[in-house]
Amino acid sequence: MNEPTFDKDGGPTEETLEAIKNWSANNPKGCLDFLSDCWSTKYGEVELPTDPDKPFMWKFTTGGWSDNEALLFALKSNFIIWVKTWERSERGGVYHFKIDRDAPKVEESESEPDGYIILVGSLGDGFQAFVGPHGLPFCDHEEALEAAEQHDIWEVIGVWKTGY
């Protein structure tokens, strides 16, 4: 999806939210630029990266508007991009995201990533990420879930596609 779509009230459509949730982890800048295009500045604010000598920085303020908050919830669902870019949050619905300008550039591909990584919770020890044999991603979703069962993992938090 290249352009966000909006419902009759000006909020993002489910298609737009799904695009954010499923955005390729290889292109976090594209995702944050897309999020900027979706953001309602009628209620909230967005500040875009401007200084060419500093890292890319975005500042999103929800303004309490539920559709802006839905956009952030969609971004949080894209775990890999969230952890790669989230810088900090402030009281009042303010979120800061950052990407270093010297971060490696990744070529976009039309093909689907063929690896998976599973993030799981372990008994009282916080979160733990498991990958497949030899440090490579699991081949498919089912294989990842079977590995969680074999390790007696009590809760599967999520399974995300990787670009491996």
Q: What's this entry about, in short?
A:
This protein is α+β, with helices and mostly antiparallel strands. The protein has helices at 14-21, 28-38, 66-77, 79-85, 141-150; strands at residues 45-47, 56-61, 86-90, 94-99, 115-121, 127-130, 155-162. The protein has two domains: 14-99, no CATH class; 115-162.
Task: Give the % helix.
Answer: 25-40%
Number of β-strand runs: 7
Identify low-pLDDT runs: 108-114, 121-126
- The geometry reads as globular
End-to-end distance, in Å? Answer: 22 Å
The main β sheet shows up as:
4 strands, antiparallel
Tell me the series of helices and strands, N- to C-terminal. HHEEHHEEEEHE
**Strand share of the residues?**
15-25%
Strand arrangement, largest sheet?
1-2-4-3
Q: Would you tell me the structural class of the helices and strands? A: alpha+beta
Work out the radius of gyration. Answer: 17 Å
Average residue-wise pLDDT = 78
Number of domains: 2
What attributes does this structure have?
5 helices; three-stranded antiparallel beta sheet; alpha+beta; 29% helix; four-stranded antiparallel beta sheet
